[in-house]
Amino acid sequence: MKWLQPNQTSSTDVTKWNFDDASLAFVITVLICLSNVIILLAFFSEKRLRVYSNYYVINMAIADLLVGLTAVGPAVIQILYGYRWPFGYISCAILIAISHAALHVSIIMVLVISVDRWYAVYHPLKHISMRSRRSAIRRNLSVWLFSVIVWSLVGGVWGISDPANRLSTRCSPLYTRHFATSFAAIAVLYWFPVSVTGILYFLIYRRVRSSKFRKIVKDIEIGERRKCSHVNLQVSSADKDLKGKEGIPGLVDVDNLSSNDTRSREGFSKVYQRHYRPKAKFRQRSQSLPVLVFTFSQSSTASSDTLTTTLDDIDMQHEKFD
């Protein structure tokens, strides 16, 4: 196949090596796209997953999917064409801008999650008041806006306007041609987010090891149990007033109630629909609630995971009883 030849001086071994690299890149592309598509389908098809913390994870999945489509995928074509880009410098500049923006979003979201967990550990009461889907979506959009603006200038405008890039046969970022710009790009894309994330998780580790934090988590759990107990008492008292001694809905035979006692039938139905049915549905969902979290260190973030799970349960409860 002529289009597999890398260049005029390449041998058969080099051609086979290019094909092996392209096959590996293709497999990686399929795995990246498939795994992130599964995450997106699970999130949009299952309402239990639509909690505050998972909106950050979904934003990472969208960014990683774009990285697979615009960075790893086009690399397969370039390898098969002998490390040459056959579609022109404009399409190359656009792909570089999109892929780097998506990669930057994915890395920044790791930093955003670590900041959110740090705030939940150090300021739990304030964090509860600001936890909402709308706030998570606003932060996600802000990250995308920042990354798109930066990399549309660095990757897109610079790549299209540079005369030397028009003569290039390879699709590669222009900042890699200079040491200063390469250093700045690596610092922005990797060193700064990873360093701040490491510092934040170290602070979280110190906090969760203290007895004060454990007392805060325990107080939050006790407060939520009291709210649930208060709801149970209200339902039980209303049910006993309606049916007297037979206050448990599972032991009441509605069909054997007197046909003249239509008030009891209607009252029992209203109480069950209003109190027992939503409560049972909430209990069934909370038992199997999956929480997707980013784990930096299992030993250092165990208590932080407990707090995140507790806060997600609070969100679910407020949705059902508000």
From TrEMBL:
One example GO MF annotation: G protein-coupled receptor activity
Transmembrane segments: 22-44, 56-81, 87-120, 141-160, 180-205
Membrane protein topology class: Multi-pass membrane protein
Subcellular location(s) per record: Cell membrane
Alphabetized UniProt keyword annotations: Cell membrane, Disulfide bond, G-protein coupled receptor, Membrane, Receptor, Transducer, Transmembrane, Transmembrane helix
GO cellular-component term (any): synapse
Glycoprotein in keyword set: no
InterPro entries: GPCR_Rhodpsn (IPR000276), GPCR_Rhodpsn_7TM (IPR017452)
Main localisation: membrane
Protein name: Putative 5-hydroxytryptamine receptor 1A-alpha-like
PANTHER family assigned to the protein according to its UniProt record, in alphabetical order: ADRENERGIC RECEPTOR-RELATED G-PROTEIN COUPLED RECEPTOR, DOPAMINE D2-LIKE RECEPTOR
Organism lineage: Eukaryota, Metazoa, Echinodermata, Eleutherozoa, Echinozoa
Record-annotated G-protein coupled receptors family 1 profile domain positions: 35-212
Family: Belongs to the G-protein coupled receptor 1 family.
Keyword Protein transport belongs to the record: no
The organism's place on the tree of life at top rank: Eukaryota
Pfam families xrefs: 7tm_1 (PF00001)
